[in-house]
């Protein structure tokens, strides 16, 4: 187990190095306007340093990945923690590829935090390496999951660049209807990111506090038990309290999950979602209070002087690079594996369907762009929406809809 | 060029219509290959309690009532007298009643048949082949097959004497 | 006729080339055709290089209209979006096909309430088999065929019909343009730049002081190859519905029994089913001591037989020949000439197959003799010593009905029981009844001794008893296999491979063209690519550097937004 501890250490190191890289990218971009310096020179110098640091982070991340592979005896993509940390690693790989092509320092300011958030999200899940169940014992696990994750990572970079394009080009001072709508769209995207951060923050806060409440539910004479790690706002449908740790004077759940939410875990998942949204909204309100203006408008000036066309091009390019990889990994390899394991290459399992939806969505993006001339904002919005679909496929499907892929273990 | 182009267009559109129509029809009617009302009754090749092999061809030209049953299934046992009565009533009017037992052994079936005084042919389906090709899930299930071999009605669950009588009458009068 | 003549006149370019209806840019020299377009200074519409799409005709009839409908990318996008939305609806609740045996009409409302009822009524519980979903897929297929046909030929023509010296407007209205004054000799400059271009993989054609450099043209065929792959894929999937090409069965195989695979001439024997769990040492800390069992291996050691004679006659024993054997695991099916057996599920409840009890005289404990009692197919009579045992009744799963009569409550041998009539010395001529439960637990549960005392009264002199486990035969477990035949799979993979090839060609290479013309010392360079403008600008700067021209990458951009 020594190797696994070593591996965990490098996970933490990678995380911290990414955080440093993020700050450096911030200095590189925001420091342009500081006095006593040539903006070009500053950007170049600090940009190079930040890229060096984020590459160092990637090296640490790769060490984590391969030592864990060696330690656990199988590729670390078999549960939610492993998958999400691999995804964040792939995002940095995709970022590195795109950076080498375009050399846009600013991209780091947006791509690195996505990887950081996903890494933090990964750490929410149980981190122990567990042996593979029979259905996962296949060579295809490696190629299917890594290729799918890599394709999705390019979509993530497409999202980062597309979102930057929007922050750069949306007119935040206009009162016109279409501009207002776009302002709200940008704000909503930012809010979604804040909600994810809120989720991670609340899970960590209560984990540090050691919070736990337990419910039992009796259904068809079978008793199941669930441990809540967040204070229960919602109890599972028709459940009994086994133990309840009070929180801020809350001594019992505020209400009960509706009857159509089957199973004891549905209640806990709903509770988690409520907590995430609550924490996210509070966090958002705090940021708004400090900034005294919408987040989008606050970020907008940072991107001044940036070539919007380049961002548009980067968005498109990373999606164009990611699309064939995604097709191969998430659809073709998935079909081949399904054929070998279950004897049917396609079974309309929710995860399969959502991979198809993602694929169809990006094929719409490409058709609109290549044949209908959709560019700029329209295309950037599609890139943002596309990544939301990707995230729903990876996280939402496991959280909300369960299928054959549910072994991935969600919190 | 104009003429040949038009021909190509028509040929391609026609192919799309044919293939597309086939795709839709086979998918919507597909229901997993399970025969439905209006379909031909699938053939079977089963050993009867009498020790000889029976198949659909023997009953060609006759209307059939095919009953899938088991000795453990209460409604099946309950409806047996009605089936027996009807088989005697319609014997001379080219209606046969056939019971297909769902996978039990000879002895259980034989004992039951003797006890219940059943005289219509009982076939054994130890490997549930007929059960599968007829797509039977709950027992009892009774199929009413017209003389042309087409399924006229599929009844799920227990039958009483009058319903059975009515259904057979429908089956015969429709010819 | 008049519009025809007008358009006929309109499509003739000043360079003398006669263009078909619908052409945007002259096929030969690239000059815009329409008057308004000639006067504009916007970027040119370079899609399909300004060629007329095949379907565009001045007087469309019915066929043309249908053709045009499917030929439109806009319509194709709408269809993809509808398919996407339809697929989403299908994932709200589990599909009917995920359950082996349910009554959908009651399952959805019972499990999901009103929402489930609506879901079921709308037919969304079988979204992917519904007529509208299949229709959408068919329409996408049609669109794939027609869109490709309509564009491939004109594009092919456009790319092969090239005049090296293009019209000035064609050049200056490209997205990448560079104009400068040349001091050297025109021909010399052209000759100098040719090797620089060739070095970067361009095929270069010159015509005096005009030049065309082109590379990776095959990339333009990428999308169409992808579409061909998708069509093959869809056709293969469609062909699965044809009889004989696809079979899918879910069957149970108790250990040690040869069972037929319906509708085939094959029989399969489950020699041994193994399930292994990870030991405590293999498990991570959090799992230890929690009694959590994590499976490590499911394996069915299977033997496949083929029937060679007496196959269709249930009154005879089929004659079998072993053809294959394989340890079936989850990711490792048995595969015999396209017939595949996949590990799906298992049941480790042992099933009693036969017992070999002894007939024992109760008073003396004397063992009169043994006989083998097959649970499923017992004999009618057994001869043990001087005694005859007639099997009168058997119940696979003993129970009582409402009238208090003994019945079998299921066809499964959960609680088998047998009623014998024993005849022989010291017994009445009509015999004595004896109830026998082979399973010890049932003996007590159904009070075998009390029953027999009532049945035999004073003649309750014998009992059946099994001596030791060697006289009991169990099938230890049952494995569930999916038996499948899928003859179209090679075509599914072929379609996927072709599609993937098209994607790689289309996305990882870009068709790049550079035109140069020099008019009395005025150099005009223009370039076009179907993707990655950044790349081509960079490449042009590098090439120009080779002929000692320093150009800023960004300044090559002629502005505007065009792919």
From TrEMBL, chain A:
<feature type="transmembrane region" description="Helical">
    <location>
        <begin position="107"/>
        <end position="125"/>
    </location>
</feature>
<dbReference type="GO" id="GO:0017004">
    <property type="term" value="P:cytochrome complex assembly"/>
</dbReference>
<feature type="transmembrane region" description="Helical">
    <location>
        <begin position="83"/>
        <end position="102"/>
    </location>
</feature>
<feature type="transmembrane region" description="Helical">
    <location>
        <begin position="49"/>
        <end position="71"/>
    </location>
</feature>
<dbReference type="InterPro" id="IPR002541">
    <property type="entry name" value="Cyt_c_assembly"/>
</dbReference>
<feature type="transmembrane region" description="Helical">
    <location>
        <begin position="319"/>
        <end position="340"/>
    </location>
</feature>
<feature type="domain" description="Cytochrome c assembly protein">
    <location>
        <begin position="79"/>
        <end position="183"/>
    </location>
</feature>
<dbReference type="InterPro" id="IPR045062">
    <property type="entry name" value="Cyt_c_biogenesis_CcsA/CcmC"/>
</dbReference>
<feature type="transmembrane region" description="Helical">
    <location>
        <begin position="145"/>
        <end position="167"/>
    </location>
</feature>
<feature type="transmembrane region" description="Helical">
    <location>
        <begin position="188"/>
        <end position="206"/>
    </location>
</feature>
<keyword id="KW-0472">Membrane</keyword>
<keyword id="KW-1133">Transmembrane helix</keyword>
<feature type="domain" description="Cytochrome c assembly protein">
    <location>
        <begin position="277"/>
        <end position="405"/>
    </location>
</feature>
<dbReference type="GO" id="GO:0020037">
    <property type="term" value="F:heme binding"/>
</dbReference>
<dbReference type="GO" id="GO:0005886">
    <property type="term" value="C:plasma membrane"/>
</dbReference>
UniProtKB/TrEMBL annotation, chain B:
<dbReference type="GO" id="GO:0030313">
    <property type="term" value="C:cell envelope"/>
</dbReference>
<dbReference type="GO" id="GO:0017004">
    <property type="term" value="P:cytochrome complex assembly"/>
</dbReference>
<keyword id="KW-0812">Transmembrane</keyword>
<keyword id="KW-0201">Cytochrome c-type biogenesis</keyword>
<dbReference type="GO" id="GO:0016491">
    <property type="term" value="F:oxidoreductase activity"/>
</dbReference>
<dbReference type="InterPro" id="IPR050553">
    <property type="entry name" value="Thioredoxin_ResA/DsbE_sf"/>
</dbReference>
<dbReference type="InterPro" id="IPR036249">
    <property type="entry name" value="Thioredoxin-like_sf"/>
</dbReference>
<keyword id="KW-0735">Signal-anchor</keyword>
<dbReference type="InterPro" id="IPR000866">
    <property type="entry name" value="AhpC/TSA"/>
</dbReference>
<dbReference type="InterPro" id="IPR013766">
    <property type="entry name" value="Thioredoxin_domain"/>
</dbReference>
<dbReference type="GO" id="GO:0016209">
    <property type="term" value="F:antioxidant activity"/>
</dbReference>
<dbReference type="Pfam" id="PF00578">
    <property type="entry name" value="AhpC-TSA"/>
</dbReference>
<keyword id="KW-0676">Redox-active center</keyword>
<keyword id="KW-1015">Disulfide bond</keyword>
<feature type="domain" description="Thioredoxin">
    <location>
        <begin position="35"/>
        <end position="173"/>
    </location>
</feature>
Automatic annotation (TrEMBL), chain C:
<feature type="transmembrane region" description="Helical">
    <location>
        <begin position="224"/>
        <end position="242"/>
    </location>
</feature>
<dbReference type="GO" id="GO:0016020">
    <property type="term" value="C:membrane"/>
</dbReference>
<dbReference type="Pfam" id="PF05140">
    <property type="entry name" value="ResB"/>
</dbReference>
<feature type="transmembrane region" description="Helical">
    <location>
        <begin position="491"/>
        <end position="509"/>
    </location>
</feature>
<keyword id="KW-1133">Transmembrane helix</keyword>
<feature type="domain" description="ResB-like">
    <location>
        <begin position="73"/>
        <end position="540"/>
    </location>
</feature>
<keyword id="KW-0472">Membrane</keyword>
<feature type="transmembrane region" description="Helical">
    <location>
        <begin position="75"/>
        <end position="93"/>
    </location>
</feature>
<dbReference type="GO" id="GO:0017004">
    <property type="term" value="P:cytochrome complex assembly"/>
</dbReference>
<protein>
    <submittedName>
        <fullName>Cytochrome C biogenesis protein ResB</fullName>
    </submittedName>
</protein>
<keyword id="KW-0201">Cytochrome c-type biogenesis</keyword>
<dbReference type="InterPro" id="IPR007816">
    <property type="entry name" value="ResB-like_domain"/>
</dbReference>
<dbReference type="InterPro" id="IPR023494">
    <property type="entry name" value="Cyt_c_bgen_Ccs1/CcsB/ResB"/>
</dbReference>
<keyword id="KW-0812">Transmembrane</keyword>
<feature type="transmembrane region" description="Helical">
    <location>
        <begin position="131"/>
        <end position="153"/>
    </location>
</feature>
């Amino acid at each position: 187990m020594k190797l696994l501890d070593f591996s965990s250490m490098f996970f933490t190191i990678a995380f911290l190095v990414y955080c440093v890289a993020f700050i450096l990218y911030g200095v590189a971009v925001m420091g342009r306007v500081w006095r006593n310096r040539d903006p070009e020179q500053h950007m170049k110098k600090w940009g190079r340093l930040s890229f060096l640091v984020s590459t160092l982070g990637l090296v640490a991340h790769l060490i984590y990945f391969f030592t864990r592979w060696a330690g656990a005896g199988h590729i670390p993509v078999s549960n939610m923690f492993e998958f999400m940390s691999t995804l964040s690693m792939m995002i940095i790989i995709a970022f590195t590829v795109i950076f080498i092509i375009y050399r846009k320092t600013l991209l780091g300011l947006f791509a690195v935090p996505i990887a950081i958030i996903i890494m933090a999200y990964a750490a929410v899940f149980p981190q122990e390496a567990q042996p593979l169940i029979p259905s996962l014992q296949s060579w295809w696990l490696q190629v299917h999951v890594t290729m799918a994750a890599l394709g999705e990572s390019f979509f993530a970079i497409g999202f980062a660049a597309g979102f930057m394009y929007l922050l750069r080009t949306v007119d935040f001072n206009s009162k016109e209807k279409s501009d207002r709508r776009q302002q709200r769209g940008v704000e909503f995207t930012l809010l979604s990111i804040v909600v994810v951060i809120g989720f991670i923050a609340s899970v960590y806060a209560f984990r540090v506090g050691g919070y736990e409440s337990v419910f039992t539910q009796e259904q068809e004479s079978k008793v199941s038990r669930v441990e809540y790690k967040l204070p229960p706002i919602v109890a599972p449908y028709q459940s009994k309290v086994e133990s309840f740790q009070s929180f801020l004077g809350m001594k019992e759940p505020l209400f009960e999950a509706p009857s159509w939410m089957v199973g004891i875990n549905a209640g806990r998942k709903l509770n988690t979602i409520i907590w995430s949204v609550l924490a996210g909204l509070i966090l958002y309100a705090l940021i708004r209070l400090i900034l005294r203006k919408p987040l989008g408008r606050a970020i907008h000036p940072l991107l001044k002087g940036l070539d919007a066309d380049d961002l548009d091009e980067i968005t498109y390019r990373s999606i164009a690079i990611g699309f064939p990889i995604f097709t191969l990994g998430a659809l073709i390899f998935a079909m081949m594996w399904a054929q070998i394991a279950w004897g049917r290459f396609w079974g309309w399992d929710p995860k399969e369907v959502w991979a198809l939806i993602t694929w169809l969505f990006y094929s719409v993006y490409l058709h609109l762009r290549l044949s209908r001339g959709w560019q700029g904002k329209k295309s950037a919005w599609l890139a943002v929406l596309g990544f939301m679909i990707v995230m729903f496929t990876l996280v939402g499907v496991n959280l909300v809809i369960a299928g054959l892929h549910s072994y991935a273990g969600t919190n | 060029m104009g003429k040949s182009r038009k021909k190509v267009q028509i040929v391609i559109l026609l192919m799309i219509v044919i293939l597309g129509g086939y795709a839709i029809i086979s998918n919507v009617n597909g229901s997993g290959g399970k025969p439905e009302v209006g379909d031909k009754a699938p053939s079977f090749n089963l050993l009867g309690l009498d020790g000889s092999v029976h198949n659909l061809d023997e009953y060609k030209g006759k209307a059939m009532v095919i009953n899938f049953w088991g000795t453990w299934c209460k409604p099946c046992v309950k409806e047996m007298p009605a089936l027996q009565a009807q088989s005697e009533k319609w014997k001379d009017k080219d209606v046969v009643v056939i019971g297909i037992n769902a996978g039990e052994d000879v002895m259980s079936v034989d004992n039951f048949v003797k006890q219940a005084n059943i005289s219509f042919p009982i076939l054994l389906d130890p490997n549930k082949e007929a059960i599968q090709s007829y797509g039977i899930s709950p027992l009892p299930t009774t199929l009413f097959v017209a003389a042309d071999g087409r399924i006229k009605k599929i009844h799920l669950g227990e039958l009483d004497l009058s319903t059975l009588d009515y259904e057979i009458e429908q089956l015969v009068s429709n010819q | 006729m008049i519009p025809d003549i007008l358009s006929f006149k309109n499509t003739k370019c000043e360079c003398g080339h006669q263009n078909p209806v619908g052409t945007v840019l002259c096929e030969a020299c690239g000059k815009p055709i329409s008057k308004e377009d000639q006067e504009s200074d916007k970027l040119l519409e370079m899609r399909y290089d300004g060629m007329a799409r095949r379907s565009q005709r001045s007087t469309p009839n019915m066929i043309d209209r249908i053709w045009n409908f499917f030929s439109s990318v806009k319509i194709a996008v709408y269809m993809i979006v509808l398919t996407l939305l339809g697929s989403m609806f299908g994932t709200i609740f589990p599909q009917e096909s995920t359950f082996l045996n349910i009554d959908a009409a009651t399952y959805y409302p019972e499990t999901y309430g009103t929402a489930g009822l609506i879901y079921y009524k709308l037919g969304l519980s079988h979204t992917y088999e519904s007529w509208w979903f299949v229709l959408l897929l068919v329409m996408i297929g049609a669109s794939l065929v027609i869109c490709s046909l309509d564009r491939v030929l004109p594009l092919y023509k456009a790319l092969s019909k090239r005049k090296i010296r293009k019209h000035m407007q064609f050049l200056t209205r490209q997205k990448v343009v560079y104009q400068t004054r040349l001091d050297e000799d025109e021909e010399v400059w052209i000759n100098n730049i040719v090797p620089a271009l060739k070095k970067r993989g361009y095929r270069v054609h010159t015509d005096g002081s005009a030049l065309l450099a082109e590379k990776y043209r095959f990339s333009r065929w990428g999308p169409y190859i992808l579409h061909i792959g998708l069509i093959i894929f869809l056709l293969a999937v469609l062909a699965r519905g044809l009889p004989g090409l696809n079979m899918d069965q879910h069957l149970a195989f108790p250990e040690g029994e040869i069972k037929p695979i319906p509708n085939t001439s094959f029989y399969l024997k489950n020699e041994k089913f193994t399930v292994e769990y990870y030991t405590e040492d293999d498990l991570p800390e959090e799992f230890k001591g929690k009694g959590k069992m994590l499976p490590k291996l499911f394996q069915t050691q299977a033997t496949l037989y083929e029937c060679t004679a007496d196959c269709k006659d249930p009154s005879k024993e089929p004659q079998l020949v072993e053809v294959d054997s394989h340890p079936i695991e989850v990711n490792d099916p048995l595969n015999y000439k396209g017939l595949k057996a996949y590990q799906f599920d298992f049941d480790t409840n042992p099933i009693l197959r036969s017992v070999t009890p002894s007939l024992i005289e109760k008073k003396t404990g004397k063992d009169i003799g043994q006989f083998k009692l097959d649970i499923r197919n017992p004999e009618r009579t057994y001869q043990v010593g001087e005694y005859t045992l007639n099997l009168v009744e058997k119940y696979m799963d003993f129970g009582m009905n409402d009238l208090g009569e003994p019945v079998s409550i299921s066809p499964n041998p959960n609680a088998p029981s047998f009623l014998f009539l024993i005849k022989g010395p010291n017994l009445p001529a009509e015999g004595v009844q004896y109830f026998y439960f082979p399973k010890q637990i049932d003996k007590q549960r159904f009070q075998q001794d009390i029953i027999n005392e009532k049945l035999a009264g004073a003649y309750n002199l014998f009992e059946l008893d099994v001596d030791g486990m060697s006289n009991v035969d169990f099938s230890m477990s049952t494995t569930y296999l999916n038996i499948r035949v899928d003859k179209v799979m090679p075509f599914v993979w072929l379609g996927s491979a072709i599609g993937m090839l098209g994607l790689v060609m289309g996305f990882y290479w870009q068709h790049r063209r550079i035109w140069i013309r020099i008019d009395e010392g005025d150099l005009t360079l223009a370039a076009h690519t179907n993707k990655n403008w950044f790349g081509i600008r960079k490449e042009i700067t590098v090439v120009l550097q080779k002929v000692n021209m320093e150009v800023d990458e960004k300044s090559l951009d002629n502005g505007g937004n065009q792919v």
